[in-house]
Automatic annotation (TrEMBL):
<dbReference type="InterPro" id="IPR006366">
    <property type="entry name" value="CobA/CysG_C"/>
</dbReference>
<dbReference type="InterPro" id="IPR050161">
    <property type="entry name" value="Siro_Cobalamin_biosynth"/>
</dbReference>
<dbReference type="InterPro" id="IPR000878">
    <property type="entry name" value="4pyrrol_Mease"/>
</dbReference>
<dbReference type="GO" id="GO:0004851">
    <property type="term" value="F:uroporphyrin-III C-methyltransferase activity"/>
</dbReference>
<keyword id="KW-0489">Methyltransferase</keyword>
<dbReference type="InterPro" id="IPR014776">
    <property type="entry name" value="4pyrrole_Mease_sub2"/>
</dbReference>
<keyword id="KW-0627">Porphyrin biosynthesis</keyword>
<dbReference type="InterPro" id="IPR035996">
    <property type="entry name" value="4pyrrol_Methylase_sf"/>
</dbReference>
<keyword id="KW-0808">Transferase</keyword>
<dbReference type="InterPro" id="IPR003043">
    <property type="entry name" value="Uropor_MeTrfase_CS"/>
</dbReference>
<keyword id="KW-0949">S-adenosyl-L-methionine</keyword>
<dbReference type="GO" id="GO:0032259">
    <property type="term" value="P:methylation"/>
</dbReference>
<dbReference type="Pfam" id="PF00590">
    <property type="entry name" value="TP_methylase"/>
</dbReference>
<feature type="domain" description="Tetrapyrrole methylase">
    <location>
        <begin position="4"/>
        <end position="214"/>
    </location>
</feature>
<dbReference type="InterPro" id="IPR014777">
    <property type="entry name" value="4pyrrole_Mease_sub1"/>
</dbReference>
<dbReference type="GO" id="GO:0019354">
    <property type="term" value="P:siroheme biosynthetic process"/>
</dbReference>
<comment type="similarity">
    <text>Belongs to the precorrin methyltransferase family.</text>
</comment>
């Protein structure tokens, strides 16, 4: 009989944001297959006797291809083991959890989804930035850096001119191109922008500026991935609402 596979969201980094259900699943697991952004503090919830398999991915370097990760999940489950597939953020928000769940269904493996708090909402919150605000933004768009540059299905003029907040994940490698595209599509060069590196953790650092100067500020601060990019008037709220300050901030 096949074992159960739990597709678990580990949250954005702060171990206090791991859900109770996620913790319970980790504690009863026999195998944990985990990603790069899962912190040691969260892995500390995994009992010492549990097998741990690292499958983290970075740009241009994948420990295992996605297809092999999916096969590994099935192999372990077919051994009758309880498997936790632990991902940063939420497994169904740019986490390829949908693909893994689909593969498990195709192979007849039972599974459960354990949602996690996504960096989309948690990281701006830890920077004192509300994604919506009654007088500033009625909604928000979530995109990846790749989608910003290469997607043909995104109505960029409409998104850029909507006045709504934009949250861009995995965009640091193409920050200059993203900024220029937003300006070219009509977003004002003085639109506020915040870059939040290692959000919700003790390494959190925030650089705030505008579309016009954010690339220079990021270069001066030497910020790199992982980071969340927030574009829109709500960024101005940070000056009043910032509450989590584990490291130095560079603002302009």
């Amino acid at each position: 009989m096949a074992g159960m596979v739990y597709l678990i969201g580990a949250g954005p980094g702060d171990p206090g944001l791991l859900t109770l259900k996620a913790k319970e699943c980790l504690e009863r697991s026999e195998v944990v297959i985990y990603d790069r952004l899962v912190s040691p503090e969260i892995m500390a919830f995994v009992p010492n006797h549990v097998e741990r398999i690292y499958v983290g991915k970075e740009a241009h370097h994948h420990t295992l291809p996605q297809t092999e990760i999916e096969t590994l999940l099935v192999e372990k489950a077919l051994q009758g083991l309880t498997v936790s597939r632990l991902k940063g953020g939420d497994p169904f928000v740019y986490g390829r959890g949908g693909e893994e769940a689909e593969f498990l269904v195709d192979q007849g493996i039972p599974f459960e989804i354990v949602p996690g708090i996504s960096s989309v909402i948690a990281v701006p919150a830890y920077a004192g930035i509300p994604l919506t605000h009654r007088t500033l933004s009625a909604g928000f768009h979530v995109l990846t850096g790749h989608e910003c540059l290469y997607s043909s299905g995104t109505p960029w003029d409409a998104v850029a001119l909507s006045g709504q907040t934009m949250v861009i994940l995995m965009g640091m490698g193409h920050l200059q191109e993203i900024v220029q595209k937003l300006i070219d599509c009509g977003r004002h060069p003085e639109t506020p922008v915040a870059i939040i590196q290692w959000g919700t953790t003790i390494k959190q650092q925030v650089v705030s500026g505008t579309l016009e100067n954010i690339c220079l500020l990021v270069e001066e601060a030497r910020l790199q991935a992982p980071a969340v990019i927030v574009v829109g008037d709500v960024v101005r709220m940070r000056e009043k609402l910032q509450w989590f300050q584990p490291s130095v901030e560079i603002a302009q």
